[in-house]
Amino acid sequence: MRIGFDAKRAFNNYTGLGNYSRFIIEALLEHAPEHQYFAYTPKIKGNWHNSLADFSGKLQVKLPVAYASLPSALWRIWFIANDLQKDEIDIFHGLSNEIPYGLKKAGVKSVVSIHDLIFLRYPEQYPAIDRFVYQRKFRYACENADAIVAVSEQTKRDIIDFYQIPADKIEVIYQGCQPTFCQRIADKTIISQALQKYGIEKRYILCVASFTERKNQLRLIKAFQQLPSKDYDLVLIGGQSKYLDDLKQYVQQSGVQERVHFLTGVPASDLPPLYQGSSLFAYPSIFEGFGIPIIEALHSGVPVVAATGSCLEEAGGEGALYANPLDVNDLAEKMHHVLTSEALQNRLINKGTEHVKQFAAKPIAEQLVKLYEKL
């Protein structure tokens, strides 16, 4: 098969959707090399500086050469179908919630990955223009793609509920994390150096999530304050935002600023040692499409406390305890339970190590190829 990808995110985004796009492309290149792969992107941001460069001989990168005078968005939405037809693409996979127009006319079968419909569940957290654009893109993709990949059972249910898409059109295929999280660090000085770099001197609870209200860091901080033991710090990693300013203000007013660390601008290379150096990973997000940070924590051999109510139980399986994300007492109780029981920690780590195997690249690539072949 000749398989094309919407690879804009793979070459220009180095977080969520970019990580997913690279993971899928790399998984197929490595575990299904008998097919031909084409990555369509309007541009390549800076140097590749990611593992796609390792497959440069097997992956044909396609830029809008014939449409260079047009805005890149027009090429991705309208004119890319001409290039796909010219390149005799059999399957086009939109990796980030959208597909272009004109694929059926061009005779190209299409798959779209839908990550979540959070903008419909929590519209107040999105600007009106973003909701309008997302709604048009997501609905069109779901209604017109030949098949939909949902990254969790939760997302599949949402696609059915919000867009009335038939269940048999949707395939749940989980996603994995970047390979750097899958290797345990043998040289403990690497972890020590990372902790020293960020001024972390005590044992700590870690949370890696964007600083937004849905990620629920305020309740996590309040739960942390309830822990009987003062032997732990709380390390929160994310990006700059207004919500982060609110969190910092709360921490200052509560007098726990010496025990709560806010880290922004952390490079991806520093995340594995920060995960593996932690005593507990906490992820109390109110709603998620999947929850990649939980997968990263399980690969890192760290016990997890996550939230009920969306898909996080799918991501964590028996490798985590789950608390009501709206109940600070429940969250504090679950964290305290893990931190004070070595037997529970070991059980969660062992169960998590087994559970996370299903998110490996090989089984995911096999599921995708089976779907492509069916189309």
Tell me about this structure:
Helix content is 44%, strand content 16%. The chain has 375 residues and is α/β, with parallel strands linked by helices. The protein folds into 2 domains: 2-176 and 360-374, Rossmann fold (3-Layer(aba) Sandwich); 179-358, 3-Layer(aba) Sandwich (Rossmann fold), CATH 3.40.50.2000. It has a 7-stranded parallel β-sheet with strand order 3-2-1-4-5-6-7. Strands 10-9-8-11-12-13 form a 6-stranded parallel β-sheet, sandwiched between helices. It is globular and about 65 Å long.
- Total helices: the number is 16
Mean pLDDT: 94
The largest β sheet comes out as: 7 strands, parallel
**What strand order characterises the main sheet?**
3-2-1-4-5-6-7
Class by alpha and beta content: alpha/beta
**Helix fraction bin:** 40-55%
> In CATH's first tier, which class of the largest domain applies?
Alpha Beta
Q: What is the count of distinct domains?
A: 2
Second CATH tier, the architecture of the largest domain: 3-Layer(aba) Sandwich
Tertiary shape:
globular
Key traits:
Rossmann fold; globular; single chain; 6-stranded parallel β-sheet; alpha/beta; 375 residues; 7-stranded parallel β-sheet
In short, what is this structure?
With 375 residues, this protein is an alpha/beta fold. The chain has 16 helices and 13 strands.
Break the fold down into its secondary structure elements and pairings:
Blueprint: E1 2-6, H1 8-12, H2 16-31, E2 36-40, E3 59-62, H3 72-86, E4 91-94, H4 103-106, E5 109-114, H5 118-121, H6 128-144, E6 147-150, H7 153-163, E7 170-172, H8 188-197, E8 203-208, H9 217-226, E9 232-238, H10 242-254, E10 260-264, H11 271-276, E11 280-283, H12 292-299, E12 304-307, H13 312-316, E13 320-323, H14 328-339, H15 342-355, H16 361-374
Parallel strand pairs: 1-2, 1-4, 2-3, 4-5, 5-6, 6-7, 8-9, 8-11, 9-10, 11-12, 12-13
